[in-house]
Write a structure and sequence with these properties.
The complex is a heterodimer of chains A (308) and B (405). Chain A is of the alpha/beta class and 308 residues long. Chain A has a single domain, classed as Rossmann fold, CATH 3.40.50. Chain A has an eight-stranded mixed beta sheet with strand order 2-1-3-4-8-7-9-10, sandwiched between helices. Chain A has a two-stranded antiparallel ribbon with strand order 5-6. In chain A, helix 3 packs parallel to helix 5. By secondary structure, chain B is α/β, with parallel strands linked by helices. Chain B has two domains: 243 residues, Thiamin diphosphate (ThDP)-binding fold, Pyr/PP domains (Rossmann fold, 3-Layer(aba) Sandwich); 143 residues, Rossmann fold (3-Layer(aba) Sandwich), CATH 3.40.50. Helices cover 39% and strands 18% of the residues of chain B. In chain B, the strands form four sheets. Chain B has a six-stranded mixed beta sheet with strand order 10-12-11-14-15-16, with helices on both faces. Chain B has a five-stranded mixed beta sheet with strand order 4-5-7-6-13, with helices on both faces. A two-stranded antiparallel sheet of chain B has the order 1-8. In chain B, helix 1 runs parallel beside helix 6 and helix 6 packs across helix 8. The radius of gyration of chain B is 21 Å and the shape is globular. Classes of the chains: A alpha/beta (308), B alpha/beta (405). The interface between A and B is large, with 50 and 46 residues. Strand 2 of chain A pairs parallel with strand 9 of chain B.
Chain lengths: 308, 405
């Protein structure tokens, strides 16, 4: 094993936070800070990572960190970044140079795909030098597992439960990376906590680019997805290995690097590992949904060239 | 230097002199001209602020808040629906003790949609921990911007401040103004020296959530800071008078101005530009030998309780004329004033008039009628006076059924 180039003497995302065991978002947070280093101002909306890391008077963060409300982490970061541009221009004493600071957002899918999309769109359109990282756990976990526009079809959540007349979520997941890319972003990527080096390299690469960047990292939620906390990384890996959550880079709107998969597995392997899809295997009509999900994986594989 | 300026020009000139680092801007009538004027200053290189053309008032406030947290001086402007959209970040800006200065071109709130002015927009923000200044004329609209910066950025205050001027009535009217420059304002307004910043070399956590054992005290500190702003406004108004030779209620801590009220039996209490017309009517009454006066709060939050009690204690009857209403229960200013007077044992009858909503003119006749009705209750026990607010005027022919149904 080669030496970890991101290794640091101190944790910047510190032990003692209150995230659940096996929390994919907590793992993503640790990986993000390893990649950004201390010269970072992190803006975070209301959500799981916010409440589990900053119950006053405690904080798990070794980087400068700001939370305001649920739907404005992108514009708060844009404001911070603009202030540093002004400080540079005006030669203000007591502030680091704009180019020495990483301006980063880390937000859940609810805050990104849904309630905060205006702030995110505006920040990207205006070209703020901000890296926006969405930790995608495919529902509103902090409020108790309600569906978001990131929830995949077939998933049972507390507002899209399975039942006599329901097979869980019935609307397809929003394609947020393409929406980000449509803003003309130089760099968009998806990543997974199952591939930490890949994720950290993407964060590092993004930070070298001036302007807005978007990374969406797949982050399992044992509580919300109904799986054993020890299986988070395995499930994240299965999402990639089945083609359900392809990881790739988009540079200037073109797909450049796709993680290829040898002997792509059937989506059932991924679905069966999680309680949120359990009903699909218990009801006859569930088969159609599983077919739909397999089709999504097949289309991903074909369009992105996943199959090795 | 004396100039003919509209209200929006004057606010823009004041902003230029105060020289914010970051100005997020979004249009809304009748505020738009303020941010347009500022954008011209930036385009012409007269102002080096970072001017951010944001996507909504929501993100104007959010961008301003982020910049303020970083340590920047900021300005933005809005009104009406835009202020509603800013409300969520503004309430949390006070909790996070982040100074923000906003120009507000007061306008009514929907529905029905109206672009015309009243105070329903800023009164709806009353409980958010923001300082609220109200200008009577264009000069005061300009000067209040400097006062707002001085108080909002004071380390012991650190709160958002709304500098209000009546939409159209002040924003779009030209008056002769003695305009201060950046060089002149420096003596009055020091550079911002933030208590905390997000400097990565000294990492901090801002905006942590609080559990029940901490939340109340955090909010209580905001409450104290809003109240403390009374003294700070007093000091700022004194310094301002020394430097610029313009006085705003100097003898009442800069919080309240009076006009011919010292010996008045009947006193009208009102905010903002309508006071110009009220002064005219008061002069008419004075010419006839009738003792009518005006008390004009310059700030609504912090509420100038002691100052108002003092200047009103010898009146025999009071009329509050206000451009807002708390739907279902009277006008906000009257509610607060009655609480303030009666808890002090000052038992003077207060009539509450809801006037000038959504740009409806407040005429001299309206004011004369208010004075006549108020004269009728002079010296009465407040408990013997009809407490219900009066809408002056109300067009009965437009109402469904009887007015009092």
């Amino acid at each position: 094993m080669t030496e970890d180039k991101f290794k640091r003497d101190e944790d910047l995302f510190c032990p003692g936070h209150r995230a659940c065991p096996g929390c994919g978002a907590a793992l993503a947070s640790k990986l993000v800070t390893e990649a950004t280093g201390p010269q970072t101002i992190l803006s975070m909306p209301t959500g799981c990572m916010e409440v589990t890391t900053t119950p006053y008077p405690e904080s798990a963060w070794g980087v400068s960190w700001i939370h305001n409300i649920f739907e404005n982490a992108a514009s708060v970061a844009g404001g911070v970044e603009t202030a540093y541009r002004a400080f540079d221009k005006r030669d203000k004493k007591g502030y680091m140079d704009h180019d020495d600071v990483n301006f980063v957002v880390m937000a859940g899918d609810g805050a990104t795909f849904d309630i905060g999309i205006r702030s995110l769109s505006g920040m990207m359109e205006r070209g703020h030098d901000v890296l926006y990282i969405c930790y995608d756990n495919e529902a509103y976990m902090n409020t108790g597992i309600q569906r978001s526009s990131s929830t995949p079809i077939g998933a049972a959540t507390t507002t899209s439960p399975a039942g006599e007349e329901s097979l869980g979520e019935d609307i397809h997941k929003k394609d947020m990376p393409s929406i980000a890319a449509a803003h003309g972003l130089e760099y968009v990527a998806t990543a997974s906590v199952a591939y930490p080096e890949d994720f950290k390299n993407k964060v590092e690469k993004a930070l070298e680019i001036e302007g807005p960047k978007y990374i969406q990292v797949f982050a399992p939620c044992p509580r919300g997805w109904r799986h054993d906390s020890r299986n988070s990384v395995e499930i994240a890996r299965l999402a990639v290995q089945t083609g359900m959550y392809p990881i790739y880079e988009m540079e200037d709107g073109e797909i450049t690097n796709v993680k290829e998969v040898k002997d792509r597995k059937p989506v059932e392997d991924y679905l069966k590992a999680q309680g949120r899809f359990k009903h699909l295997f218990e009801k006859d009509e569930g088969e159609e949904v599983i077919k739909d999900l397999q089709k999504i994986a097949d289309v991903n594989a074909e369009e992105l060239g996943i199959d090795k | 230097m004396e100039k003919m300026l509209t209200g929006y020009d004057a606010v823009a000139e004041a902003v230029k002199a105060c020289n914010p680092d970051v100005i997020p801007a979004y249009p809304i009538t009748p505020q738009t001209d303020i941010v347009e004027k500022i954008s011209e200053m930036v385009a012409d290189g007269e102002l080096t602020s970072e001017y951010v053309r944001v996507d909504s008032e929501f993100n104007a406030a959010s961008t301003a808040l982020g910049a303020s947290a970083a340590g920047a001086r900021i300005f933005t402007a809005t009104c009406s629906q835009g202020l509603k959209l800013m409300s969520e970040p503004l309430f949390s800006a006070s909790g996070m003790r982040l100074p923000l200065v906003l120009g507000i071109a007061n306008r009514s709130l929907s529905a029905p949609l109206s672009i015309w002015g009243d105070h329903t927009d800023t009164f709806a923000e009353r409980d958010g921990g923001m300082i609220q200044f109200y200008a009577e004329d264009v000069q005061e609209a300009m000067d209040n911007i400097a006062l707002a910066y001085r108080v909002a950025e004071d380390k012991e205050i650190s709160l958002p401040a709304l500098s209000c001027l009546d939409g159209f009535i002040l924003t779009h009217v030209q008056e002769k103004v003695d305009a201060f420059t950046e060089k002149e304002i420096k003596e009055f307004l020091p550079e911002r020296d933030p208590v905390h910043t997000l400097d990565p070399s000294d990492p901090t956590t801002m905006g942590a959530y609080a559990r029940p054992e901490h939340w109340t005290e955090t909010r209580y500190e905001v409450h104290k800071a809003v109240k403390r702003a009374k003294d700070k406004i007093g000091e700022a108004v004194e310094d301002f008078a020394d430097i610029f030779d313009r006085e705003y209620g100097l003898e009442h801590s800069g919080l309240v101005e009076t006009y011919r009220s010292e010996d008045a039996d009947v006193i009208i209490v009102a905010l903002g530009s309508v006071c110009g017309t009220i002064r005219y009517v008061i002069d008419e009454y004075r010419d006839k030998g009738e003792k009518v006066g005006l008390v004009r709060p310059r700030v609504y939050r912090p509420f100038p309780k002691e100052e108002l009690n003092k200047v009103l204690e010898d009146a025999e009857a009071i009329a509050v004329m206000e451009k807002d209403v708390s739907l279902g229960y009277q006008g906000g200013l009257a509610i607060d004033l009655k609480s303030s007077l009666y808890s002090n044992g000052t038992m003077i009858p207060v009539l509450n008039y809801i006037v000038g909503l959504a740009g409806r003119d407040v005429t001299k006749d309206n004011i004369r009628k208010v004075v006549e009705e108020t004269k009728d209750v002079r010296g009465k026990d407040p408990r013997d006076v009809e407490e219900e607010e009066r809408w002056e005027p109300l067009r009965d022919e437009l109402l469904s059924g009887d007015k009092d149904d």
